[in-house]
Write a structure and sequence with these properties.
Two copies of one chain form a homodimer. The N and C termini of chain A lie far apart (51 Å). In chain A, 37% of the residues are buried. Chain A has helices spanning 2-10, 75-87, 124-128, 190-206, 221-232, 238-245, and strands at 20-32, 44-52, 62-63, 66-68, 93-100, 111-119, 136-145, 150-157, 160-170, 176-182, 249-255, 265-269. In chain A, strands 1, 2, 3, 4, 5, 6, 7, 8, 9 and 10 form a ten-stranded mixed sheet that branches. Helices cover 24% and strands 34% of the residues of chain A. Chain A folds into two domains: 19-204, Nucleoside Triphosphate Pyrophosphohydrolase (Alpha-Beta Complex); 217-269, Arc Repressor Mutant, subunit A, CATH 1.10.10. The interface between A and B is large, with 52 and 52 residues. The structure holds a DNA duplex (27 and 27 nucleotides).
DNA sequence: CAAATAGTGTCTCTAAGACAATATCAC
DNA sequence: GTGATATTGTCTTAGAGACACTATTTG
């Protein structure tokens, strides 16, 4: 083993070019939409966090939160730390949605990014995060995937609307990636990252992997159904939804009150 | 925009530490097992490609094929190139199984790896790849996942047997990763990479994403079933399997012959 | 009571799993 | 014919989707 020790002593990383590595995170949250009618409940709207860039490149454009991977950290720890720094909230889930490494994706040079999707719950405290600083805002998400592979991503916050146009390229090898036709003003290749994160989120929501993470500890089944519908952009019948999640939840003794209609039993995740 | 140009001119990547980035690939293939009885068909065995390291570190240990990401290449192109160099065959599929970035995973320093799973078909030509050089060999795969989270990975080639012991750590955040208890002599953290690749392969095989890639263009339904069974380590009833894949395949006019039993119709992927 | 949501019962259709039976070739 | 695999038919059961109906609260 002396030989190996000697080898390692002489080994220098500087002999080969190295890229900078970043973690970019798509932070999802469910925003409660206000309603005019006192009897009508609010619907959940899927939203994600964007940050207005204060420095070059893409100064003043909207971009995903993220940052460079420092030595001594795993890429997951890095992503988690960045979410905490940007939202001051610990996310309920974090999933990798793949590497983005196309040459030229960053004008600063050779910078590749590992993208993550993360979900934060909609409790009191998290509702405020990203709202105090004008440079971090929650954008409502609309993502329509067309049958011919093209898709439209619309992110809106008040009168700010970012409309990106993409198409999904299914290469051989089972790797499908989104190509940006029109970034809609979203910085870097972040529109493609968001599209892939949404696809991953919807795949996860189909088997109920993430839907609980959007809600507080105790919730009604209708609230849970709202999450599912907002994430997947579908609508399902209450009776069927309840049957499907019956095995995944646990009753509590508590009920909602004061809503102008029949109270609902609160459930916990099993 | 002058301002941005000036910024980019003054920007230097050398101001921040950067890791080396590699792509490591788990190349899967189905090996035909010889049979003694002239009437009995051969069964397929799932196997993967390992390379005996000729240089430090882990000299003489078995490791996954892979290499450093050079500038101007995407990580997928890099993985694809490495597979071609090692097997002289273009893989039928390539899927990312995630980033491995734990500090200390490589004794040479800060080196992080994007791992891929890839499948090559079992045509005449591919059967020879990896067999000519004694430093690249196909290892039969046995991967038993226990209910308590521990799992046993056994790779064998002739009298070489590598037995690794791992356990699956399901952290919060939905990220589950394999921790190596005993590497079984497999270099670096490659035992954990293989475990994750196998999990991804099995998940894909459940919805028939990859099973066709193991076979030549024309195949019998029994051959297809053998792939499914070898990859998932299960056994299914022929009648049910045929019904399930009926919509995914297309008949041809050709049949197998000379097998000592009823000939089978050849199918193509639809 | 009216409006709105909460929650249950049940019908149909499809798909999965199990099992039995028949078909066809090479030796 | 025998031994092997190929292929089809059908019974049962579980789950998804659709729809109708009942229950409960607040203004």
């Amino acid at each position: 083993m002396k030989e190996e020790e000697r080898f390692l002593e002489n080994y220098s990383m500087d002999d080969y070019p190295r890229p900078s590595v970043t973690a970019d995170i798509v932070v999802f949250k469910l925003r409660s939409e206000k309603t005019e009618n006192f009897r009508k409940d609010s619907r959940g709207v899927l939203s994600l966090l964007l940050i207005r860039r204060g420095c070059h490149p893409f100064k003043d454009s909207w971009a995903l939160p993220g940052g460079f991977l420092p030595p001594g950290e795993t890429i997951e720890e890095c992503a988690l730390r960045e979410v905490k720094e940007e939202t001051s909230v610990i996310p309920a889930s974090l999933m990798s949605v793949g590497m983005f490494s196309a040459p030229g994706r960053d004008p600063r040079g050779w910078i590749i990014s590992n993208a993550f999707a993360s979900v934060i719950g909609s409790t009191e405290e998290t509702q405020r995060s990203g709202d105090d600083a004008s440079d971090a805002q929650w954008f409502d998400v609309s993502f329509e995937q067309n049958d011919n592979g093209s898709s439209l991503l619309r992110l809106s916050h008040d009168d700010i609307v970012l409309s990106a146009e993409l198409y999904e390229e299914k290469s051989r090898f089972g790797i499908s990636s989104f190509i940006i036709r029109d970034s809609g003003g979203i910085a870097f290749d972040h529109a493609a990252i968001i599209a892939r994160a949404l696809t991953a989120l919807r795949a996860g929501a189909k088997d109920f992997e993430f839907i609980f993470d959007f809600l507080p500890e105790k919730f009604t089944l209708t609230e849970l159904q709202n999450v599912q519908e907002a994430v997947m952009n579908i609508s399902v019948l209450p009776a069927n939804f309840r049957r499907k999640v019956a095995g995944l939840v646990e009753e509590t003794d508590e009920y909602t009150e004061g809503a102008g209609h029949r109270p609902a039993k609160l459930y916990k995740r099993k």
